[in-house]
């Protein structure tokens, strides 16, 4: 029907603005030359306000998971006691990564439709003074839950464990205050709220995390943070980076700064609220309660969701994401992050309404809209 | 002088053809969607003739070094006896990687201006039946040497060690016959002769190497080959890849196939021969003898080479690479790979001639050219 203009509404990769895309097509330059050295440290510094930190931010050529593994491979030695807070697919990825590095793995499991309870973390830590590292996901995109990492950080109280945060689908869409909240490591990636193409991860360590990482005995080379620190002294990367992505990110940051960070965050909250109101009005069931809802992605319960998604893609060119893990085929997820506006939320809701109406699943909102 | 049109003549990243660059700016798509799944396995299969293999080729979002680490982290367990053949900066990188993974490291050192002698490899292996893995660089771009990996492979004779080859700056510029030569692992990257932007590595394992990797005990996750194999079954990558790079590579392969692989290799040999004849005619000293010369990059001895390079960049917009390791500041290197033609070799030689003439270092060729 409208397939000639595809509408990507998945929680990453997100549509890339033309201004950003065109940077990807710029002529190749030397990554050891003056132009790269001029732009690279500046771009990374401009990410500081998004992370809420004055710590050095590093760029890794790789997927978001490569960024997560920078954290694990520079912190987790064999038998290091770690706590993974698992309430979804990406929390589980932390646990898999820690297991791959031979950690003494403790897992606190939480329901895959609600936020992580800081009280349970506090209680666990009280009885486990040996834990050295805690791994958590800020925005669990698999469940569309925003976890309260500030409260989780505080739940440590006097406990010395470092807090490592996956902010891949949060950064740039919702406030992150690494320094103020006492987060020790924060990881993110390019293809979510930063609205640049996939292939770049970002990692930043607090001074305490960097100090702790000195004793790490894990095998690592490409992801060894020490090399990135060493080369940063001459404004370079240790290995040939995806050069144009630096310029793409620069352009994306131009757009984010022009809108203003607070306005960017407000836009994401508005999209969340619109999406949730619309889903309720249509008569579908939200996966997550209001208080735990993500500002960047919304999960909707739906039987045989994958068939439904295929129909929407086929008929309207609108692409939603499916469920992961225990939610496979029983939810769909609508991304509203990065290069997305409230108008994009309206169209996402419109195709849901139109389709449900057309196929005899009339809903209250559909009645109102379609029969007006 | 001509700086408004920069001429990148370094051994990677190389200039990217516009046809390829524009693929980088195409609209973002879902990496779990039909379009990606359709193109991804086809593009990888088209790399088969360049690697000279029917083995599955995998694409890793990362620098070439990430590809090298796929080899090491999937093969080297603590105390695995390995042999690294080191005749340059990237041979040394193999040794560093193996050391990082706790190998029992044996190094055969070769001069940094000549090819690796297969006889010395044969001799070493005769006395070291315990060696399980041999690491070598096909085209050592730091010294502009092309190693005879076919002869090195044969030098194993009855020895069971697997041969792991870094073909980063060779693949697509000179023939590689993985299967016929009995290579067990071959690694390459996008930003050299494949003339696509940096950020993608390629890795392929022989059945014997894959079998051997099953017993590997190294910690790995992002670079775990098993995950790539598993996801390949559904024509996907385990982690969000740099999607547009797949389409860029597709376009580059269109160009390579249109020219014909044999013609591509002949073009590289011609550029090598032209460059070497020109350098000799100018009266400068080549780093490497004819029989070991790389078809993709040429090294030239020059005192205070970095100052000279800066002047060439400043005056003519032509960028050569410097020396690495023991060659720092005493050689310069001219890349002639990928999107490069014999005309580009002529202009590289021309600026050398003009500059040496202008600054009083008249040479025979400069006399001829400048005073004609």
What characteristics describe this protein?
372 residues, four-stranded antiparallel beta sheet, Aspartate Aminotransferase, domain 1, 16% strand, Aspartate Aminotransferase, domain 2, 42% helix, homodimer
Please write out the topology:
Two copies of one chain form a homodimer.
Chain A: E1 7-8, H1 18-24, H2 34-46, H3 48-51, E2 57-61, H4 64-73, E3 81-86, H5 89-100, E4 104-109, H6 118-127, E5 133-137, E6 139-140, E7 145-146, H7 149-154, E8 162-166, H8 178-181, E9 185-189, E10 200-205, H9 207-213, H10 225-232, H11 243-259, H12 261-282, E11 285-286, E12 297-301, H13 305-316, E13 318-319, E14 321-322, E15 331-335, H14 342-358, H15 364-370
Parallel strand pairs in A: 1-13, 3-4, 3-5, 5-8, 8-9
Antiparallel strand pairs in A: 2-10, 6-7, 9-10, 11-12, 12-15, 14-15
Helix pairs in contact in A: 1-11, 2-11, 4-5, 12-14, 14-15
Give a short summary of the structure.
The first copy, chain A, is an alpha/beta fold. The first copy, chain A, has helices at residues 18-24, 34-46, 48-51, 64-73, 89-100, 118-127, 149-154, 178-181, 207-213, 225-232, 243-259, 261-282, 305-316, 342-358, 364-370, and strands spanning 7-8, 57-61, 81-86, 104-109, 133-137, 139-140, 145-146, 162-166, 185-189, 200-205, 285-286, 297-301, 318-319, 321-322, 331-335. In chain A, strands 2-10-9-8-5-3-4 form a seven-stranded mixed sheet, sandwiched between helices.
């Amino acid at each position: 029907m409208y397939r000639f203009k595809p509408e990507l509404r998945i929680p990453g990769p997100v549509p890339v603005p033309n201004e950003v895309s065109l940077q990807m097509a710029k002529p190749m330059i030397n990554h050891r030359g003056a132009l790269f050295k001029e732009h690279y440290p500046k771009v990374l510094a401009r990410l500081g306000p998004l992370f809420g930190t004055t710590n050095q931010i590093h760029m890794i050529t790789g997927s978001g998971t490569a960024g997560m593994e920078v954290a694990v491979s520079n912190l987790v030695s064999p038998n290091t006691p770690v706590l993974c807070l698992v309430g979804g697919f990406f929390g589980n990825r932390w646990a898999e990564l820690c297991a791959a590095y031979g950690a003494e793995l403790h897992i606190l499991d939480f329901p895959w439709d609600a936020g992580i309870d800081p009280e349970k973390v506090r209680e666990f830590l009280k009885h486990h003074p040996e834990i050295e590292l805690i791994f958590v996901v800020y925005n669990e995109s698999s469940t569309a839950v925003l976890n309260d990492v500030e409260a989780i950080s505080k739940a440590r109280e006097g406990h010395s464990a470092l807090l490592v945060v996956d902010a891949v689908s949060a950064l740039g869409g919702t406030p992150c205050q690494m320094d103020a909240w006492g987060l020790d490591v924060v990881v993110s990636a390019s293809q979510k709220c930063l609205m640049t193409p996939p292939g770049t991860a970002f990692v930043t360590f607090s001074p305490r995390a960097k100090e702790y990482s000195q004793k790490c005995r894990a095998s690592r080379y490409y992801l060894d943070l020490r090399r990135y620190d060493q080369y940063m002294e001459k404004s370079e990367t240790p290995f040939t980076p995806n050069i144009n992505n630096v310029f793409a990110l620069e352009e994306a940051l131009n757009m984010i700064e022009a809108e203003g960070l607070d306005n960017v965050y407000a836009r994401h909250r508005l999209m969340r609220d619109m999406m949730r109101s619309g889903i309720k009005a249509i008569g579908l069931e939200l996966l997550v309660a209001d208080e735990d809802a993500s500002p960047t992605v919304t999960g909707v319960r739906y039987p045989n969701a994958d068939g439904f998604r295929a129909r929407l893609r086929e008929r309207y060119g609108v692409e939603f994401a499916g469920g992961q893990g225990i939610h496979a085929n029983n939810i769909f997820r609508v991304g509203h992050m990065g290069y997305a506006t409230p108008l994009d939320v309206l169209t996402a809701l419109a195709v849901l309404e139109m389709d449900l109406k057309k196929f005899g699943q009339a809903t209250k909102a559909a009645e109102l809209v379609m029969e007006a």
